[in-house]
Amino acid sequence: MLAGILLEKWKRLGSLFGRAVYLTVAVMAIAIGALPVAHAQDIEPRAYSNAPIGVNFLIAGYAYTEGAVPFDASLPVKNAQLKTSNAVLAYARVLDLWGVSGKFDAIVPYTMLSGTAEVAGHPFERNVDGFADPKFRLSVNLYGAPALTLKEFKDYEQDLIVGASLQVSVPAGQYDDSRVVNIGTNRWSFKPEIGISKAIGPWTLELQAAASFFTGNDDFFGGNRRSQAPIYSLQGHAIYGFRSGIWGSFDTTYFTGGRTTLNGVEGNDLQQNWRLGGTLAFPVDLRNSVKFYVSSGVSARTDNNYDLIGIAWQYRWGAGL
Hints:
The protein is mainly beta and 321 residues long. It has a single domain (2-317), classed as Lipocalin (Beta Barrel), CATH 2.40.128. Helix content is 10%, strand content 56%. It has 2 helices and 17 strands. The protein has helices spanning 2-30, 150-153; strands at residues 56-67, 78-97, 100-119, 122-131, 135-143, 160-169, 189-200, 203-214, 217-220, 224-228, 231-241, 247-257, 260-262, 265-266, 271-283, 288-300, 306-317. The strands form 2 sheets. The protein has a 12-stranded antiparallel beta barrel with strand order 1-2-3-5-6-7-8-11-12-15-16-17. A hairpin with a 2-residue loop joins strand 7 and strand 8. It is elongated.
């Protein structure tokens, strides 16, 4: 039975890849692109790769989802048939942190959501757009990725990298306390993570472990207090790099936890989810590159799977490029 589910998911991913290839070609033709929207179920290969100190990245992007709510999988909705279109702007800079490389990045998403779902057995329709919660992250490569200038970086070859990061989500997105489904979450979240990246010839194998912690929402759906237990997640990536600079990856993630409490009553909404995905990135020229990515839910204990397709354009400058 599991084999059948996986086969269906791979067929679905194949269809999504076909659409993503078409989008990538279109984006290259008109010189625009997109970035993955930030979700609780993020899949992010090469999060701890090294780069020259002082390089800046500007990313513009688009991501589309179908299914459940991608930015808060614990919302008490059933039979969700929701679609989101997400425009994203992001900035990142590579830093010298006491002799090792680090990175600061900021993500600002804008989301349009529409569709139907059920709350307490009653159907509802939701059409809304607005800014989602912005996210800020500081990461540091603790081992195997020294801080290097562009000239020094030309002789660098990755072996083993060990890194860590902290991401903070700020409750500044669109929020209406008379609605269950919103684009913003009306709470802070903090996500510490550790990651390991090992290069083996043209292959790079990665593993990331993280925990997401949430503050309470004291104004949930008419003034209720809603809190959520931490969500623990694992990501794995198998990345193949070509000499041309093109790289592709097979990606998977598992996350568990996140049980909610409403006015002191614990819910039966423990999350135990698997997702599969893939990423393909290639350079356009020295400063520009394009990436497209897809992912799909394989299994979910609380019926909150969704499909995602996205494309991103990245421009880099600084450090003597």
